[in-house]
Every structure is written in C-alpha cells, then in structure tokens.
User: Fold these one by one.
Assistant:
Number 1:
Amino acid sequence: MKKVIFLFFLITFVDGFAIAIYPVSLRVIVDKSHLITYGKVLKIYPTNLQNKYNYNEIAEIETLEILKGQTQTKIIKILYQSGQVCPPHPRFTVNTNVLAFLIYEDGLCFSVSFSSGIKTMQQNEFETYKNRVFEIIEINTITDKNEQNIKIKDWALTCLSDSITKIEGVRELQRKEITNKLNFENKQQIKQLFFSNPKFDYNCDFVFADILKTDYPNEVDQILLKNLLSVDSAEISYVFEDFYSRLEHLGNRELNTQLKKEFDQYIDYEVENVNKMMSIYNAFIKNISN
C-alpha cells in the first residue's frame, strides 16, 4: 500500500459526506470545538459505554484552564479508539498535560478531528498556544472574507516565528487564498526561515519552497537538490514524490517521466524493492544535476 508521510491528507466518509480529517489546522479545530481546555491526564481505561462510533477507551482529564466553552465538572471524560487505527486517534499518557479540543455529541465527549484535537504539551508550550488560540477565535468572528484572510495570513506568520506553533502557520500557508495575500516583507520572512534552516524540515520546507519558487527559482532548486542528495533508503519511499514534483523540470524531462513511472511500480512493495528505488533515485539525481 502506498504510504504518505509528513504533510499528508486523509479523506473519510461520515454520514454520507466526504470530509478532510488529518491534518487539520488550528483555525478549523478551534472553530469546531465546543470546549477547549488544558488539563492533566489522570487515568485511562477501557469502556463498554455505548456510542455511535464504537470507541472503546476513556481518558479522564483534570481541567486546569479553559480557553473556550464551559464545563460543569472539573474532570472531563474523553472517549476515543485505542490501538493503531486509521485515521490516527489521540494517544494519552497518564500524568502528562494536554490541550484538548472537544465536541459533545449525545452527552458524550470526543476530540475534534481525531488525534489533531489532542496536543500533549508542557506549560510553556501551552502559554504560546493559548495566545494563538485566543487570536484565532477572534479572527474566526470576522465575516468579511478578504479581511479575515489578511488576518489569518498575519496570524500564520506569527505562528511561524515560534518553533512551538510553526506547523500551525505552515498549514495555513498551504491555502492559496492565504498565500495570495503575502507581500514582499512576508516572503522575506519565509525566505529567511527556508534558507537558514540547518536541517530540512519535511513538514514545513516543501510548503516554503512552493511559496518562494516563483521569485527565487534557482535558489529553491539548489536547496531542494542539496537535501535530495541526503535522502537515505529508509526515507526514499516517503519523500521521493515531494522532491520529484518540484525538480522534474530539470534535466531531461522525458527521462524523468520514465524514471517516475518505474519508481511508482516499486513503491507498493518498498521493503522488497528498496534497492531498485534507490537506483532510480540515483538516476534521477544524475539526470537533474547535469
């Protein structure tokens, strides 16, 4: 089965409607939440409690601070599915603190957007997230879409400025209606992040490359090629597609297309065919480097 990692997207069907479930931006999670709370995980245990999703485990959270909504009890019981399931459900560890984005259905409590709705974090991380949550709550009330998108763009750039919330900014910058609002100074901020990053971040840097490629095509190509050269056999099946789609314009394009077709034949069985995939990877690098 093909695997997708890093900035990936899953689609499921709920009550007949196809919806995006992971990853989900902080903006969307906040908007959908009935209750947003920071709390301590007290205990985890299996349950036979009937619910329409057939979730089989409960995590009890002691409320420390509420950012949105209200609760009548200090202890909140969150239903979820244990085990390795798709889409990924939240994972709880006793005596850790979580920022929980929750909804109530039929009197029961669930996380918003599966694992995206539960974020394990320390107090200092929570303080940073708390500010961003309050800001996006306010932004979500703006009815004028153009004004709202400008505010979201500025909010995303604020997220980028802190490693704790960087990924939240990146998720907004995947939306064309937000990147269309970027001005020269905004792009300079993103350029600084992209060009100064000592280690390529698969979660963020492909998005930055897409934003910057029109204004800095050669520089972006050089950084992508440099980091493509460092991909090893354990990563190749996950990231080749991302690098290929951004570098296929280099070298002999007919050869690149042929190599991609060959690579796709092997990716479903990457363990058995990793040597073949690495051979294609090396041929691609040779072609685009000439």
Note: The chain has two domains: 10-122, 167-175+182-289.
Number 2:
Amino acid sequence: MKKAAGLLIVIILLVQISVTFADSSDEISQLKLEEIEPLILSRNAEIYANNWNGYLTTAQRTLLDYTVIWKAQQLYFSYNDFQLQKKELQNRIAFLQEQLKIEEIKKNSGLTSGSDQINLNSQINDTNIQIMNIDRSINKTREKLNLMLGQDTSHDLKIEQPPEPDKNLLLGINYVMDITKGINESLNVKNEELIFNKQSEKKKFELAFKQCYQNVKDRCEDLQIELGKLAETSKKISLYLAEYRQGLCPKSDYLNEKNNYSNQELKVTKAELEVTKAHIAYSWMVRGFIADQSDY
C-alpha cells in the first residue's frame, strides 16, 4: 500500500509539472539527448520551490526527477525511431517511382499492358498513407516533449538525432563496480519502509541490473551485425553499378540493390539508436534507478 501511495504521488506531481510548465515563457528551439536531464532538473526545481516546498522528502524528489527525465528520454527515442520509419517509407516511394518510370517506358514500347503501373501507383498511395500516420505520431511525440519541457505543445521544437554510440562502449563498462554503485544508490534497497525486505530488494535489483547489462551487450552485437551487412551491401551495390554502366544488368536490378543499400543504412542507424537507448537505461541502473518497474 505504501509503495502504491508513493507511485500515486509521483503521478500527481507529473501532472502538476506538466500543467505548470505549460505556462512557461522560455522556449527551447532545439533539443539534444544530453540536454534533457539538465532542462528537466531546472524546471522541476522551480515547481518544488513554488508549489511543493516542504511537501517532498529527498527520496521523493529524486524519484520524481528520475521518472520525468526517463519519460522525456523515451519520448526522444520514440521521435527518432518514427523518423527512421518515415525515412524507410520515403525510400520505398523513391524506389517505386523509379520502377514506375521503367514500366512507363515498357508500356510505350508495347512490352506491357500497364497493369504493373496500376499496381505500383497503388503501392505508392498506400505508402503515402503510412507516412501520414507516422507524421501524426511524430507530431504527437513532439507535443508531449514540448509539454514536459514547459512550452506550448504547438511549438516547432527541433529534436536532433542522438550522437553515434561509442564503438568501445563495452570496454568502458566495469560491471562489478557499476552494480555495486547501483545497489548502494538504489532507493528501493535503501528505503527504510522496506528494511525487512532489503535482501529481497537487493536480489531484485541485481537481476534487473544483469538483464540491463545483457541488453547493452546484445544491442552492441546487433549493431556489429548490421554494420557487417552494410559492408557486404556496399560491395554489391558497387558491382551492380559497374555492371549497369556496362549494360550487363537491367536498371531494375541496380535500383533494387540501391534500395537495399539505403534500407541497410537505416538499419545501422536504428541499431545505433538501440545501443544508445540501452546504454541510457544501464546508466540509470548505475544510479540506482530501475526505469521500468512494472515487474519490480
């Protein structure tokens, strides 16, 4: 019951922060991943001073700060993920339009009835509808971020891509030192109300930490796999381009391989995003915060 009450306090405060922030006059024009935490902390401090001074314990303030920052970071990642999905669909339209040109030439030469053109136009229309739906998701995500940053939801916030992850990320992680620090910082482990379950809370944290660390390793491995595929696709597109220029392969085959290369580039970018996302979650664990506590 006490745990549920604490969670309810966090939810109420999140609503209060969103409503109060919406009245702020300071507008942020661009947002980078590393800027989210200091911006949220600054605005939270204003709320505590003006509306909740003396009502919150240090632990409650820390939990609230961490929760809001985490939620904002997840919105940031969602926004970038939607942008990648949109780019993939835009690549598909460009590919289909090139195919359409080829079919137009075939039709004019009497080599086809034109049924393939109808099918390609239908695919282009369907893809444009998918892009419209993703644009809606992009706009909704931007609105939510604007709200959490204390500005009008319609503000044209420019959300930048995250930096490329460190290729030696795993080498810089000291598991033993990090998990020890995380346990010492964990609010659940240190919570006096849970003192009789301290060992149980510690074991739960250790399991969550291990899973989080494994997720970082898995995402780094995924990235290496996608980079390897990109290297292979790069070799293939070079060969197809040379053959196409020499008239040894049809344009449609070259365009298909070119489309595969563009999509593989996006898969690498997606894998990089997932590595950064996993490392952010790991960094929170080192600070003693389990972001997803649904099963905690």
Note: The CA atoms of residues 171 and 217 lie 11 Å apart.
Number 3:
Amino acid sequence: MVTGRGRLSHGLRVLITLGLAIILAAPLTGEVQSLPPSRGLDPRTGVCHAPGGLTVVAGGGFLETLDANGAVLARTPLASPWPARVAATAEPGTGRLLIAVVQGRPGDVFDRLRFRGVWRSAPPLVGGRVTLYAYDPANGRPPAPGFAKLWAGPGPSLNPWWVGFGDFTGTGRPSLLAGVWKTAVFDPLYDRRPFVYALYQTQVPTGAEGAGPAGFLPSAQWLGSRLSNPFVDLATGDADGDGLDEIVAVTTEPDGRYAVSTYDWSGFGFVLGLRAPGFRRVAGVTVLSPGHVAVVGRGATGGDGVFIFTAAKEVGGPGLLLPLTDSAPLPTYWNRPGGADVTISGGGWTIKVSADGHASLLTAPGR
C-alpha cells in the first residue's frame, strides 16, 4: 500500500506538471518579446558598452571587462551562474566605472504555483539580486582584479529583473533604476514596479580588495508602487532633450495596445511627460540621443519597423513623441533567436537593430 501510494503521488505530479506546461505554453497576454535597453545596455545578453571604450560582460558566473579588441582586462566571479543583465556608468570624480548587475533564475511553471498562478506582466527573471560593483581601469590588468563589490541591493523577495542608470535630478550624479516584481500595500498582485536609488558619496574605502578612494553608494530615493500606467519594460535617457534623464517605459493601454511613455522626476516621484501611443507590439525602446527615441515594434498598421520620435511639448497637458519619419521596415527574419544584427536607414538615420530589439545609432541627420 505504501508503494502504491508513492507511485500514485509520483504519477499525479507528472500529470499536473505536464498539464500546466501545456496550458501555459501559449504566450502571456500583454507581454512584449524582450527587455528594452537603457543607454548602452543590451540586457538580454548581459553586455554593456561602457564609458572609455570598454565593454562589460556578465554571464556564465563571471563579470568581465573587455578592451576595444575584445581582450579580457579583468574578471571577477558572480554569485551564481544564473542569467545576468548589466549596466555601467562613470562614477563622478573617481575615474572608475559603476557596474550594476542583476541575476535571476528564468521563470518556469513552478513559479506560477509559488506565486499562486497570478502573473500580471511577469518578468523573465525571478528570485535574483542586484549587485553594484566598482571597476578601476587603472588596476584592470591581470592579475590585479580591478573590481570591488560595493553594495548588495534588492534581493529575491523583490524579484529584480532590470537595471539601468540615469541622472534624473540634474545633480551630475547618476541614480540606479531597478525594475522589481512584487506586491504592494494596496495591490496584492505581483506586478512590475520601479525602484530608484540615489548615489551618495561615502568615505568607506571602495577600491579593489578594500583599498582605494571613497566612492558612491546607493540609498533609496523613490520606491514606487507603479507608474501612472502599468508597464512591461524600461529604459533610461534624455528622451525630451531637456538635459535630464527620464524613465522611459513601455506601458499598457486599456485597449490592449502599448504606448512608449516618459516620466520626469518631480522632487517626490515621477510624473508622466511624453507619450507615443498605438503600438500593437514593442520589442525594444532606446534613447538614441537627447530628444530622440527609437522604438522597435509594430505600429497601428503594417509590419515590424523602427520608429524614430522627437519630443514635442503640448501646452496644458502631456506632450507627445512625434515621429520624424515613417517607420523604416525591418525584414521578416530580423528577430529570429541568435539572428544577426540588421542595419536600416531612413530620413538620414542609420540604425543597427539586434534580434532582441536593441537599437544602436550609427549615423544621424547632419552628422
């Protein structure tokens, strides 16, 4: 009898697992296909093009810096071999890089059970942590590690899935933006939420192996429960050309479509700035240069393409992101997994688009 119950229990587990896998195999309503990058960020592959011509790579259990020729300058182990996303910015006044890494476990069918089956806009990573490192290029030649671990940020209970930097306040000091997936006091469902951490100078030695100049550490600036509309992806950059960075979010609309919306720091939170509504699908959004935003996706009509927008303020209400040109079409094969980058041109712009929706500016009108 004991053996029979054990066999029945195992069989039921197998049937339940297979049944849930079949039921949940269809794509989730409202999900976009990839995460958009912040300035210089290619989050799906864990590669960041950093100031000084360096490249930062996070993945396979290691964090590395590479020179312009792809040679490894320095390497340090990460907490786990889980998938990673990375962002980098210059640390004010020190000559070092600040590198934010978020690692997490890819979501699977068992996470749906753990979170009671409620996946409102579920992220691609769960159960991970944000870690902030400093990298000193002067000490970045092997065997000197060049890295210093500064801060362990949002952890598994917050399910961080995105990181980026932006100077939202105009102080010249970047803030760290983390996308987390959690419940809120007045919202019992798991949803994507923006957490912003200001960087404050500290006298704690933050160099490699604990010896080095004082640097910057994050402190909570705004732990938001949501933006004005639910969002599924994030980016940062000076989207409206005012000299300050904004949060750029892919937000969901009541009709099931998507909008690209910018949010400005107001001193106590982020308020809606500009909008570009009406997308049937958004694969990625990138701030190309101050006042210019590229959206890779599908508009109200037609196929996939790259839309380039410029800022336009309206008196008495939120402004609009107005398209400069008609959408530059993308070939039907552009977003195949592992596919090669596609270069498109239109209206004087030349842009390279990766298979995950990341747009890189090659040339702009007048350049």
Note: The chain has two domains: 29-226, 228-367.
Number 4:
Amino acid sequence: MSFFLYFICVYQIFFVTLRPNTILILTIMDLQELEKQYEAAKKALQEVGKQIADLFLAAGEKFETEAEEGKPAQPAEPVQPEKTAAPQPAPQPVAFPDLEKLLAKLDTLLQANEKLQATVDAQKQDLETLRKNQEETVKSLEEENDSKQDRLENIIQTVQEDRYRKDKLKLINRCIFQSEMLRKTIYEYPDITKDMTLEEKEAFLLKQLNSVVIGYDSMLADEGAVVTHFAAVGEKMDKENQEAVGARETGDEALNGTVAEVISPGYVWTLPYILKAKVNESGEEIKRYKFLMQTEKIIAYKFVKQS
C-alpha cells in the first residue's frame, strides 16, 4: 500500500510542477520501472506454478508407488459369525502445508500482478494522452513560428525596398540634374553664344563641362568612390595606382619616369564597413575594404639622350 501512496505522491508532484517535456520523460521512466516490476511478478508466478506442479507430481508418484507395492497377505482366519460392523470414522482430509503456503503466495502474487497491470495500463493511457498533447503543442508552435517567419520576411523585404528606393532616389535625381544641365547647354548654346567670340564660346563650354564633372564626382563621393591622387607632378610614377597614357621626352635623366602631367584622377571605392572590427592586435587591416576602381591617368617623362 505504501508503494502506491508513494507512487501517487510522486505522480502528483511531477505532473503538476514540472514542464511537459520533463513530465513526459519521468512518465516514461515510471512506466519502465512498473514494467520491470510486472515482469518480476510474472516470473515469481511462474516459479510458484512450477513448485505447485512439482508438488502434485511428487504426491502422484507417491500414491502410485504405494498402490503398486500393496500390503502383505494375511493368514486365513476361521469363519466367525457375522457381526454388525462397527461404524468407521469419516476419512480425514490429507493436509499439504507446503501446498497451502504456495497457494496463498500465488493468490498474493496474482493480486499484486493485477494491481501492477492496472497501474501500467493507466500509465500507458496517461503517457499516450501526454504524447498527443505534446504533438498538438509542437504543431501549434511550428505554425506560430511559420507565421512569425513569414511576417519577419515581409518586414525585411519592405525595409530593403524602402532603403533601396531612398538610396537610389538621391542618385537618380542627381543624375537627372546633370543630364538636364547638358541638354540645356546644348539647347541654349546657339542663343547664348551668338554674340560671343570664339574664345568666349570655348570658355563657356569648358565651364559647363567642368560643372558636370564636379557634379558627378560629388555623386560618386556620396557612394563611397572618391577622387584620389597618387604621385604628384615631378614625383616618381606610382606604377600600381597610376597609368601612363602618354610620354613627354626630356633631356634631364633625373626626370625619367616621373609624372609630367595628370590627365584624370583615380577613383578609390571604400565599402561602408567598420574597419576597426577587421584589424589584428597590431592595428593592421585584415580584410581590405578599399578598391581601386580606376587608375590615375598621367603623362610621364621619358629620358631621351641628346645627340
């Protein structure tokens, strides 16, 4: 009885206070323990049955042996007058103390086995109910997670679209402005320059074109691609970042390979990342975030020996 009270107390504590996953594990463990007890009781029943069978077999062999041996013959006695037979006492039942004990033990084991079987069945039913509840909970959580995932993807998509529109809108508007400036210059050029001299016309065109160049360089700078100069005029040419598109002869050997004139600047694009997060303990950059998009175009001096 104390075992079942203990089991009920443990069952109530674990199934009320613990989380579903822990309860499921403990229920399985309890069920396994009950199954072990059931198997032990079943084995004990088999042992008692075997003992009873052995006891009956021994009793039968004993009776058969006595019947086969019989009793020795008695000498004949003279015939006596018939007498009234005295009443015989009623036969007394043969007592088998060991058999009675085994039967009592068998009855106790059968009762215990029935209780264990009922407990195991109840535990299996509770376990099945808990398993179904767990499946429903998992399914509900999966559906909720899928819904949140879809919502998150929609939010990310919306944010990306908004960010893309804001980033590109500014660039597009500035490009349109520069294009309109060029078109306006082309359209109004005849009227604006009809009273100008040739030199004034050239100066006007150069001014307009230079404004366009400045505008485009400003747009590139906003995107992280900035105008960059390397070796200056008179300095040794930077062969890694500068490209000589022409040569200017000189008789001064000291000027050989130096920059004579800059035709167009270089452009270096820097990605918008935090560089401090990509350096080692010495402060050296681990990963490059600066890219040379265009080399600087120059004219270099070339030494020509005078004859």
Note: The helical segments are 2-17, 20-69, 97-192, 198-222.
